[in-house]
Amino acid sequence: xxxxxxxxxxxxxxxxxxxxxxxxxxxxxxxxxxxxxxxxxxxxxxxxxxxxxxxxxxxxxxxxxxxxxxxxxx
Length: 74
Ligand SMILES: [Zn+2]
Ligand SMILES: [Zn+2]
Description:
Low-confidence stretches: none
Bound molecules: zinc ion
Shape: elongated
Mean pLDDT: 84
Distance between the termini: 76 Å
Oligomer: single chain
């Protein structure tokens, strides 16, 4: 008999099954807090890792503590 949630053989849960466990990710995405798995595209900067898809420019600026300034008119 398979899993009562996803119907698959035990140990091979569907990724949406509540019993599914993510494989150990080497790195964690700093933006969405999920693992970065083999085959995922990601960006790396100063030892921080972010999925390419999560790499929003504003998030990156925040993450890398870039200062956002407004040019003064003088
Ligand atoms: Zn399952
Ligand atoms: Zn992410």
